Each structure stands twice: as C-alpha cells, then as structure tokens.
Amino acid sequence: xxxxVAALALHGAAHAGDDAAAxxxxxxxxxxxxxIGDTVTYAEMGGDLVTRWDGQxxxxxxxxxxxxxxxxxxxxxxxxxxxxxxxSAVRVSRSGETLxxxxxxxxxxxxxxxxxxxxxxxxxxxxxxxxxxxxxxxxAGSALHLDAAGRIARVATGIHYxxxxxxxxxxxxxxxxxxxxxxxxxxxVGADGRLSRRRVFVELDDLVGVDPDRGxxxxxxxxxxxxxxxxxxxEYGAGHVLIVGRDRRLKATITVPEAYVTAxxxxxxxxxxxxTAPVSxxxxxxxGAVYVAANPIAEGR
Length: 301
Prior knowledge:
This protein is mostly beta strands. The chain has helices at residues 16-19, 204-208, and strands spanning 12-15, 20-28, 30-36, 39-44, 49-53, 58-63, 69-75, 78-83, 88-92, 98-102, 114-119, 125-129, 141-146, 152-159, 162-167, 173-178, 183-189, 195-203, 219-225, 231-236, 240-244, 250-255, 263-266, 272-277, 287-294.
C-alpha cells in the first residue's frame, strides 16, 4: 500500500505525525475502512459516500443520499455498506452498483443505527445496531447476522451502544465493542451463525487506567483482529488504537492527532493499518483524516 511508511518498534507507541501517511486529510467523518489488495475502501458519513484509495488517488466508489455510511465489509463477491443515518444495510457490487437494501431483521424489527460490520467468510456479515448514544440511555444495542441469502437475525441484545465488531480468523469468536461500558465483549460463534457464551474480553480501564476527567463519549469503537488473534481497538475520543494480545495485555499503541478515532483495518499481509479519524464529535461535516501506519507488531510476519 504505502511503502514509505517506516517500520515501528515492536512495543510502545507509534505517532501518526512521524510514522504514518495521511491518504486523505479532507474526509467527511471517515469510518469503517476495508483493505482489499492494494486498495482501501472507507465510508464518509458526512458526505453520504464511500471512497476508494488506489494507492495514488481517492475516488468516490459509491454514494446514496441520506445514507450516512459508517462501514464497508466483504460479503462474498459483494460488499455491504451500513447506512447509519438511513437505518439500512446495502449490498453493493464490486463495481459500485446498488444490489439490495435491507432495513429490518427477520422478525420485522427495523434497523435503527447500524454501525460496524465484518464479513463472516460465508458470504454474509455480522454487524452492530448501536442504540442511543447517551450514557443515561438503556442498553439497547444489538449484534446482527446478515447471511448470504439476505436473511437478518438478531444474535445478541442488551449491549450499551454496540459499536465495533471483529471475527477471529477461524470464525469461532466474535468481538463486539460495548462502547458506553468501556469494554469489549466476546461471543462464541456456532455453526449456524448464532452467538453464545457472552463474556467480557477486556475492560479498557484495565489497559489505559482510570481517568476521572475522561468524557462519557470515550470508549471502544471499531475493532479488527489479526490472524494471530491480536485485537486492534480504536478508542473513540482518545486519539489512539490499542493493540491487545490474546492474553488481554496491551502490546502496542498507535496514536493520531485527531481524538475521535473510529476504526482500524489491517492490510491483507497485516503489515499496515488503515486508521480513520474524524475531528469532531458533533459535526459530521467537519473534515477528518485517513492514515496508513506500519503495524508495530508485524515484525517477523
């Protein structure tokens, strides 16, 4: 992707100002990147569009008025784009053609604010439907599964703002950010795609400490997991990506200038990380940045 990105130390912090390349400094609330080959496709919620970086230029790949997209995920030969503001999941061809729009689950319950998605390896995706973004709101977030046939099942509920999702390489564990509780949940994935054995994988305060002055909005947003099982957590409001091992210990931190980091995505060889970073909590039309950084734990891979 970007060969000029320097290798980072195996442990410790990487600072985007020195060790990452900005591929777009004028992205309208960027979120939910997906790296395929030498391209990065990412959502711009504030622009109602999905943008693709080909290594040289950013070009509009897909758009939909009122969508407010927040995630792009592989779904077999197609892509799924989540329209956070519209309340839908949209199947899009690799050439950018809209194929289908899903706005409710199999029980007729409407999608409210779908947020993050990850391919399930079988032509479908897991995705979050967050619930209200307020510390006083009930825990109304869910995780859902959209299968290759277009059927949507609600597979986990009662999550206090369900946000990022990530699936292990073997397909056996799904991680879900519980943003407003500042923790990441883990679920076992069954052969039928259903989830079981809900548990807390990690509390962010155990990783970064307790800060009594921290804003209520600061918490785990987008997630990614590598083939070794390390988890990458974009901490929204904190300006960094935390890399956590299977032993739940912090292995490395990548920092960026913007506070509101929304997501991180690994390149196919896992040596680079795309990071999306809006600059504003309340203004989706404000410009944010998209970075590509060297993966600080990729040495030897």
